[in-house]
Specification:
elongated, Hypothetical Protein, Haloacid Dehalogenase-like Hydrolase, Chain: A, domain 2, 15 strands, 15 helices, single chain, 443 residues
Length: 443
C-alpha cells in the first residue's frame, strides 16, 4: 500500500479507505444474511465470490461483470448437469476407466468453450469452466450432486444480485445539470508529473458518465492535452490554447477558433525575422494543427521540437510561414533578456494593444521565457460564454490555481479539491438546502 508524506508536518499519511472497500464489506455481510435466512443451505463461498466480482469502480463495469458471471454460471451448470446424466447412464464404466473419464471431461471443456464462442460471450468462458469443474470434479461423488448443481447456481445468483445492488446503492442526490463546471488542468486536476489521483479519476468519470456538464480549460494545445486526459470520460469540448480554440477530442475537430488576421500574422512574423529571432507559428487548416518553425541554433528549440513532434496530433514543419496564412498563435522561447527586449519592441509597434500577448518564465528551461501572441478575443471567458450558449446553461463554476481568477481556487498539491467540490456542487444530497451550498468552501 502506497504511503504519502505530508510536506507540512513530515508525517506519513495513509490513503483513505475507499468506497469500494466499504461496499465490499457490506456485500459480504449481505451474502451471509441471505445464507442464514436460507437455513445455511448451499455454500456461501460461491455467493461471496460472485458478490466481490460485481463490486467494481464503475456501475457499468459492475453490471457487465454480473452478466459475465451469470452467463458463465448458467453454461457451466447446464453442461455439469449433462455430464452427471451421462455418467449415470454409463454406470460404472467411467469409474473403472479413469482415462475414458478424463477424455470425456476434456471433450466437454472444448464444447463449453465453443458454446461461449457461439453465444459471443467469450469473456464468460472462464466462469463456465470453473462452475463445470466444481460440479464434475469436486462434487460428482455427493449423495445428491443434482442438488449441488442447483445450489451452485442459486448461490452465484444471490451473490450477483447482492453485489450489483450494493454497488449501485447511494444516498438520494439531485443532479445539477443546470451548471457548467470548468476546471484548469495543470496544478489543478493534475500534478507536475501530469498525473491525476485515483480518487479524482474514478469519481470524475462516474459523474461524467452520469451527465455532469464538465470540461477543461488549458493553455496547452489539444495534442499536449489529449495524452493527459486519455482516461477521463470527457463529453464536452475542451477549451485549449488559452482560450484560442474549442476542441472536440472525440471528433478531433475545432468547433471555434479565434485567429490572427493575415495582415497581423504577416506583421508579427516579419517583426520576429527583423529582430533576428525565430518563432513557432501555430496554424489550423482542415482541423489539422501545423506548427511552422525555422532553424535557430538554439538548443532549447531543438529539444522542444524533438520532444513534442512525437504526438500524432500536431505536425511540425521546418519552413517559413506561408503567405496569406492566418495564425492561431505565435510562440517565442528565448533567454529572459531577449524576450523582454522583444516585448518592448512589440509595445512600441502597438502590437500589445491590438492583440493578446502573454510573457512568462519557463518552468522547463530555467533562465528562458515565453512570449505567446493570440487574437485579442482568445480568452477562456469568451469560450465559456460560447459553450454556455450552445448548452443553454446560465450558471458556471470555474476551478483554477490563480487567486481571484476562479470561483474555487485550488492550492498547489491539493489534487482532489476539484472533484470534492464538484461532487458537492453537482450532486448534493437531496435533503440539503441547495442554495446554501458554498462554492468557496475550504477543504
Amino acid at each position: 500500500m502506497e504511503q504519502r508524506v505530508d510536506k507540512g508536518s513530515g508525517k506519513c499519511c495513509l490513503p483513505p479507505v475507499g468506497l469500494r472497500i466499504v461496499k465490499s464489506m457490506f456485500a459480504v455481510f449481505g451474502c451471509y444474511i441471505i445464507h442464514f435466512i436460507r437455513g445455511n443451505d448451499g455454500i456461501v463461498f460461491y455467493s461471496l465470490l460472485a458478490a466481490l466480482w460485481c463490486i467494481q469502480v464503475y456501475v457499468a463495469d459492475s453490471k457487465a461483470n454480473a452478466r459475465q458471471r451469470f452467463i458463465g454460471t448458467c453454461v457451466g451448470a447446464v453442461y455439469g448437469l449433462i455430464y452427471l446424466l451421462l455418467r449415470e447412464r454409463l454406470g460404472m464404466t467411467l469409474s473403472r476407466y479413469e482415462m475414458l473419464d478424463a477424455m470425456l471431461l476434456s471433450l466437454m471443456i472444448g464444447i463449453i468453450l465453443y458454446t461461449t464462442v457461439l453465444m459471443q460471450k467469450k469473456k464468460a468462458s472462464y466462469f463456465s469452466c470453473v462452475v463445470f469443474f466444481s460440479i464434475v470434479v469436486n462434487h460428482v461423488a455427493d449423495a445428491n450432486p443434482y442438488l449441488f448443481v442447483w445450489n451452485r447456481f442459486l448461490d452465484t445468483v444471490i451473490g450477483i444480485v447482492i453485489g450489483v445492488w450494493v454497488n449501485t446503492l447511494h444516498l438520494p442526490r439531485k443532479k445539477r445539470r443546470d451548471i457548467l463546471f470548468v476546471s484548469g488542468l495543470d496544478d489543478t486536476l493534475i500534478n507536475k508529473k501530469d498525473l491525476m489521483s485515483d480518487y479524482s479519476r474514478i469519481e470524475l468519470n462516474r459523474m461524467l458518465d452520469e451527465g455532469v456538464n464538465f470540461t477543461i480549460s488549458t493553455v496547452r494545445t489539444p495534442g499536449s492535452m489529449i495524452d493527459v486526459v486519455r482516461n477521463i470520460h470527457l463529453k464536452l469540448p475542451v477549451i485549449a490554447m488559452d482560450g484560442a480554440v474549442l476542441y472536440d477530442i472525440y471528433e478531433k475537430t475545432y468547433l471555434k477558433i479565434y485567429i490572427i488576421s493575415k495582415e497581423e500574422s504577416k506583421k508579427i512574423y516579419n517583426l520576429v525575422q527583423k529582430e533576428g529571432l525565430t518563432c513557432f507559428t501555430n496554424v489550423i487548416k482542415d482541423d489539422i494543427l501545423s506548427i511552422y518553425y525555422e532553424k535557430s541554433g538554439e538548443q532549447v528549440h531543438e529539444q522542444l521540437v524533438k520532444q513534442l513532434r512525437r504526438s500524432p496530433y500536431r505536425n511540425y514543419i521546418q519552413a517559413p510561414l506561408p503567405e496569406n496564412e492566418e495564425a492561431v498563435y505565435f510562440m517565442l522561447l528565448y533567454p529572459a533578456e531577449v524576450i523582454e527586449r522583444f516585448y518592448k519592441k512589440m509595445e512600441s509597434e502597438g502590437i500589445t494593444k491590438k492583440l493578446k500577448v502573454k510573457k512568462y518564465p519557463s518552468d522547463d528551461y530555467p533562465g528562458y521565457s515565453y512570449i505567446k501572441i493570440y487574437n485579442r478575443n482568445a480568452k477562456k471567458e469568451n469560450m465559456i460564454e460560447y459553450l454556455k450558449s450552445q448548452l443553454r446553461i446560465e450558471k458556471v463554476v470555474t476551478f483554477g490555481s490563480i487567486p481571484e481568477h476562479y470561483d474555487i481556487v485550488v492550492n498547489d498539491g491539493n489534487m482532489n479539491k476539484v472533484v470534492k467540490c464538484l461532487k458537492k456542487g453537482y450532486e448534493p444530497v437531496s435533503f440539503q438546502i441547495l442554495n446554501k451550498w458554498k462554492y468557496h468552501e475550504q477543504q
